[in-house]
């Protein structure tokens, strides 16, 4: 069944984890494209300020302060969208948090909290969205977009429980997609798999290491992810990697897992630690982040574009350009001979 999604300017979009990092970048970009927004996070003050920012700029945004790890609270998101806008078209499950450190050194209660947000938040949001979007939609499909990670495919040492949660997100998302397709539901289900993104992600994570955590290179700007998410809100896609470096890593892990294990254990653990000693930190699982920042400072270069991701969003154009270049090379070689 061919699925057709509305243009963003005609959509109502729900975004969880909307006040920082990828969620914040996506909310601002969606507003720029004319979408009506229902924004969800735990800190009400940050949500209110973000909605004021968007509405003063001519957008239309409302908020719901919720913990996505609570099924009852997640229902409030959809009900708010229905009460205010008559429904919604796309639900973006973005909320998530990580834990850095050896699996043996992290408290079991923190493991459970991580799964409540990073996995169960996606499950509750997806099922809530599916129940609403399965209804008649005047010929248009709705969209569920889940934010996974390259950790959905390739486990990352010292982010073991985060990797487990993102693996679970992938398994759940793939199963949901197949079941909705079998039922003939007019819903596009997409999994976005970003590489290392230069957000405040490590600052909000728990940490059992002696040094402050960071993300391994290559790093990409969060607005690249936002563009990918919003592209998939208009164009049905099964999944999309964001960042060619991350795609290479997962491909190598698939083709030569033993080699990737060696590389990850030898290099990636060290690349996730700065030279600064760890201090008593704010931990987003215990208290909501309030900084409202898309980006954070990193020692490594941050790419503002990804040729791989651009090509993924425009496969026909990319194929045409490559074919034209190949034909040109053949013609030139013929003339020279």
Shape: globular
CATH C-level class is Alpha Beta
**Which homologous superfamily in CATH is the superfamily?**
NAD(P)-binding Rossmann-like Domain
Query: Got a strand count?
Result: 14
**How many helices in DSSP terms?**
11
The fold-level CATH name is Rossmann fold
Sketch the topology as an H/E string, one letter per element: EHEHEHEEHEHEEHEEEHEHHEEHH
Structural class: alpha/beta
Oligomer: single chain
* Average pLDDT over all residues: 91
Characterization of this structure:
There is one protein chain. With 337 residues, this protein is α/β, with parallel strands linked by helices. It has a single domain, classed as 3-Layer(aba) Sandwich (Rossmann fold), CATH 3.40.50. The protein is built from eleven helices and 14 strands. The strands form four sheets. The protein has a seven-stranded parallel beta sheet with strand order 3-2-1-4-6-7-12, sandwiched between helices. Strands 8-11-14 form a three-stranded parallel beta sheet. β2 (36-41), α2 and β3 (60-65) form a beta-alpha-beta unit. The longest helix is centred in the middle third of the chain and has 26 residues, at 108-133. The protein is globular, with a radius of gyration of 20 Å. The N and C termini lie far apart (50 Å). Residues 321-326 have low confidence and may be disordered.
């Amino acid at each position: 069944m061919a699925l057709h999604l509305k243009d963003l300017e005609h959509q109502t979009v729900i975004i969880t984890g909307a006040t920082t990092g990828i969620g914040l970048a996506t909310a601002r970009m969606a507003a720029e494209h004319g979408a009506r927004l229902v924004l969800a996070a735990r800190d009400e003050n940050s949500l209110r300020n973000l909605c004021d920012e968007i509405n003063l700029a001519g957008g239309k945004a409302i908020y719901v302060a919720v913990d996505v790890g609570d099924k009852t609270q997640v229902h409030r998101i959809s009900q708010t969208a229905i009460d205010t806008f008559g429904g919604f078209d796309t639900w973006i499950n973005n909320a998530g948090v990580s834990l850095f450190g050896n699996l043996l050194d992290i408290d079991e209660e923190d493991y459970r909290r991580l799964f409540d947000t990073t996995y169960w938040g996606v499950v509750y949001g997806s099922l809530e969205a599916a129940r609403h979007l399965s209804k008649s939609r005047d010929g248009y499909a709705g969209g569920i977009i889940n934010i996974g990670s390259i950790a959905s495919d390739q486990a990352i040492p010292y982010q073991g429980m985060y990797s487990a949660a993102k693996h679970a997100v992938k398994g759940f998302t793939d199963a949901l997609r197949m079941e909705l397709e079998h039922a003939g539901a007019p819903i596009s289900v997409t999994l976005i798999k970003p590489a290392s993104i230069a957000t405040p992600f490590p600052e909000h994570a728990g940490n059992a290491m002696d040094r402050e955590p960071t993300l391994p290179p290559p790093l990409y700007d969060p607005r690249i992810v936002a563009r990918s998410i919003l592209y998939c809100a208009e164009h049905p896609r099964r999944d999309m990697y964001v960042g060619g470096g991350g795609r290479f890593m997962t491909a190598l892990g698939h083709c030569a897992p033993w080699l990737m294990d060696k590389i990850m254990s030898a290099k990636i653990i060290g690349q996730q630690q700065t030279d600064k000693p760890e201090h008593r930190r704010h931990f987003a699982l215990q208290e909501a982040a309030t900084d409202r920042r898309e980006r954070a400072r990193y020692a490594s270069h941050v790419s503002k574009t990804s040729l791989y991701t651009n090509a993924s969003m425009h496969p026909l154009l990319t194929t045409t350009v490559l074919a034209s270049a190949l034909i040109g090379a053949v013609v030139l070689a013929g003339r020279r001979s």
